[in-house]
């Protein structure tokens, strides 16, 4: 017996993804808090690497004087972050199925509002990957200039690597990402502590290289409404720190028990770390005199010719570690790496949400199933594809992509928090215990405060960023929403068509079997025997007359072997095969509308890919065409050639693992029935 030889595709898949997991291993893939933090919270923690920079870039339009608003804006961002984190701690305790904002909005406001939240989250996850990878390219470019020259290529490659790592499974990818995430947190907190120590304890003058430049305003004499609008725009840019908070709510099923409490604890850790890093970087930016401009060539007076503006983190690190270059290299490298890995938040949130939507029949069912490693492989690949398109279209520009970024997340924030208010109100109507009511009232106040803040921020974000690209995000949300409605409508229509009637089904009056024959060889004889074994009411062999000589030879061989069945010859003046057969079957159906026609098609089973090129695919074409005819059943009768013994059946079994035993049993029963019938047929044919 020949051993199964794995195909090249199977070998590559096992090398990249690993060996498949059994379904009962799902419990072993659940995450402890120390791993869940870098997996699901790396985005809000890593966003401190670009959110303060975007805030100061927005203020730079009004010149250096507008930087004075930076600390105040930073404090408002921190208050908003803590309010949202506190609100989502209530969410994850109340809803633990993994639907997140979608489930909260759908249960408490109705399915349409749930779909709005879901479309906002799906769009936000796609932008999250694009923004994080583009920001990583900008930071790594501070150390490796070649990355700046090929940002798009680097970003696309990074998305592919992330997708491949996530296809290996959530727990395995989490262990891989844990070290870089914690290295980034240690690096940024160390940068802040050392910088503040040098400034306030040692009294050292820590100045960035750009502190010596003069920042010129793009718009002179910006006062009144214009200045207020600018400050609001800077606040909206700083609010990008909050993106990714909702991912924990979508990923509650991935936590170990008790899921709700572990998810809430992870949210608390994430909020405290993110706010500490955001405030620290904002303070160091002000103390070191870092200047960043939307138009460095026009706004930075005194900059040397050919000056390349580095990221805010890189400039602060260069100032703090001016006498210790390894510290600068560590911070910049860790920042670039965490920004790449921050996209992993979306790679865990998007597939889980997509699976839940597919379960509710709003997305294709393929997104609901898990892959070999118990990850939602189709969702991972779909997200990687969308993000790659955005990166290429926007040339991996962080400044352009971030304008599209935070609209979706604040839409989901608002719908989620308003849904939670309804949730607590509904429970309070039936709860009589004083302690439980007090706890619910406290949660209701927290969610109400979160709703008020996120609603204001949503208005600010839409007003300040709409013309800068936020309209693209809103349009994408509308497209996702309409697509999900269309998918659900399709599934509902299919379900209504497949719904059996209340009365008993009417059995077909008769069954007419038709066996397609081109030559009287072993596959044709097997098909004839199988057709006879089904005991149809009528049985006819049909051949298409494409070549007169071949047809006459078949008729002579038919008579010589004394086959006890009539052979019907269908003429084909234009040498077609498929159409004459379909017309013949249609004619049978027209004569007897209540009857069923079963067409048996003999088919070779080949083992080598190149052998398929040497045989025409007429059987496939005929089968595909007849499947659209009502009242017609098509049965393929395979005949295995010797080359099929070399086929990697082990790989085929893995792909058809579900139900394979049942199919084998059915095949054995059918073979036994055919064998008993064949024993009664003449031995000479």
Structure description:
This protein starts with 7 loop residues before the first helix and ends in a 7-residue tail after the last helix. The strands form two sheets. Strands 5-4-3-6-7 form a five-stranded parallel beta sheet, with helices on both faces. By secondary structure, the chain is an alpha/beta fold. The chain is elongated. It has helices at 8-17, 33-40, 42-46, 51-59, 70-94, 100-109, 111-140, 145-149, 151-167, 170-201, 225-238, 245-250, 259-288, 296-299, 312-320, 325-342, 344-359, 377-393, 398-401, 407-428, 434-498, 522-533, 548-560, 578-591, 618-626, 649-655, 660-678; strands spanning 214-215, 300-301, 511-516, 538-545, 567-571, 596-605, 632-640. The model is unreliable at 1-9, 22-28 and 656-685 (pLDDT under 50). The chain has two domains: 22-300 and 310-493, Amino acid/polyamine transporter I (Up-down Bundle), CATH 1.20.1740.10; 511-678, HUPs (Rossmann fold), CATH 3.40.50. The longest helix has 65 residues, at 434-498. Helix 6 packs across helix 20 (407-428) and helix 9 (151-167) packs antiparallel against helix 18 (377-393). The chain is built from 27 helices and seven strands.
Précis, in short:
It is built from 27 helices and 7 strands. It is of the alpha/beta class and 685 residues long.
């Amino acid at each position: 017996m020949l051993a199964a030889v794995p195909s090249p595709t199977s070998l590559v898949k096992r090398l990249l993804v690993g060996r498949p997991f059994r379904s009962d291993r799902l419990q072993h893939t659940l995450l402890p808090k120390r791993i869940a933090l870098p997996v699901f919270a790396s985005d809000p923690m890593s966003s401190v690497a670009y959110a303060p920079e975007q805030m100061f870039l927005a203020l730079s339009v009004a010149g250096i004087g507008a930087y004075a608003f930076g600390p105040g804006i930073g404090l408002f961002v921190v208050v908003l972050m803590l309010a949202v984190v506190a609100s989502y701690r209530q969410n994850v305790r109340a809803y633990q199925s993994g639907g997140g904002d979608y489930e909260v909005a759908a249960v408490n406001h109705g399915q349409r509002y749930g779909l709005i939240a879901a479309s906002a989250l799906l769009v936000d996850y796609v932008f999250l990957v694009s923004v994080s990878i583009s920001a990583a390219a900008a930071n790594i470019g501070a150390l490796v200039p070649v990355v700046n020259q090929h940002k798009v290529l680097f970003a696309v490659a990074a998305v592919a690597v992330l997708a491949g790592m996530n296809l290996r499974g959530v727990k395995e990818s989490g262990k891989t990402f844990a070290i870089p995430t914690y290295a980034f947190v240690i690096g940024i907190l160390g940068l802040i502590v050392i910088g503040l120590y040098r400034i306030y304890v040692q009294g050292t003058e820590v100045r960035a290289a750009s502190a010596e430049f003069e920042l010129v305003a793009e718009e002179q004499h910006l006062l009144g409404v214009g200045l207020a609008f600018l400050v609001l725009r800077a606040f909206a840019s700083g609010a990008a720190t909050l993106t990714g908070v909702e991912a924990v709510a979508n990923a509650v099923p991935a936590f170990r028990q008790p899921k709700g409490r572990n998810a809430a604890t992870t949210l608390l850790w994430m909020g405290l770390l993110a706010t500490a890093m955001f405030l620290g970087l904002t303070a160091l930016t002000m103390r070191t005199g870092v200047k960043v401009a939307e138009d460095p060539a026009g706004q930075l007076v005194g900059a040397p010719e050919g000056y390349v503006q580095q990221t805010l983190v890189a400039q602060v690190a260069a100032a703090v570690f001016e006498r210790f270059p390894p510290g600068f290299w560590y911070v910049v490298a860790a920042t670039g790496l965490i920004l790449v890995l921050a996209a992993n938040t979306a790679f865990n949130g998007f597939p889980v949400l997509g699976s839940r939507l597919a379960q509710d029949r709003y997305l294709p069912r393929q997104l609901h199933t898990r892959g070999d490693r118990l990850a939602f492989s189709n969702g991972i690949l779909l997200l990687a594809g969308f993000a790659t398109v955005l990166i290429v279209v926007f040339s991996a520009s962080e400044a352009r992509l971030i304008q599209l970024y935070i609209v979706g997340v604040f839409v989901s924030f608002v719908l989620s928090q308003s849904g939670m208010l309804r949730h607590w109100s509904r429970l309070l109507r039936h709860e009589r215990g004083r302690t439980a009511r007090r706890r619910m009232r406290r949660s209701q106040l927290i969610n109400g405060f979160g709703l008020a803040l996120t609603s204001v921020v949503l208005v600010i974000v839409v007003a300040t960023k709409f013309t800068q690209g936020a309209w693209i995000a809103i349009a994408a949300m509308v497209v996702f929403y309409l697509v999900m409605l269309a998918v659900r409508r399709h599934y509902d229509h299919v379900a209504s068509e497949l719904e059996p009637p209340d009365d008993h089904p009417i059995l077909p009056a008769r069954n007419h079997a038709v066996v397609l024959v081109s030559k009287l060889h072993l596959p044709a004889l097997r098909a004839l025997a199988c057709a006879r074994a089904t005991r149809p009411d009528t049985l006819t062999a049909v051949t298409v007359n494409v070549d007169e000589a071949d047809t006459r030879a078949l008729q002579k061989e038919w008579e010589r072997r004394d086959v006890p069945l009539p052979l019907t010859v269908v003429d084909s003046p234009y040498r077609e095969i498929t159409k004459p057969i379909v017309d013949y079957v249609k004619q049978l159906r027209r004569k007897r509308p209540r009857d069923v026609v079963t067409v048996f098609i003999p088919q070779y089973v080949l083992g080598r890919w190149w052998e398929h090129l040497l045989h025409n695919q007429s059987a496939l074409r005929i089968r595909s065409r007849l499947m659209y005819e009502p009242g017609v059943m098509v049965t393929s009768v395979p005949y295995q050639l010797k080359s099929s013994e070399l086929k990697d059946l082990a790989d085929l079994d893995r792909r058809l693992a579900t139900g394979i035993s049942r199919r084998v049993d059915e095949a054995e029963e059918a073979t036994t029935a055919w064998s008993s019938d064949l024993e009664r047929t003449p031995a000479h044919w």
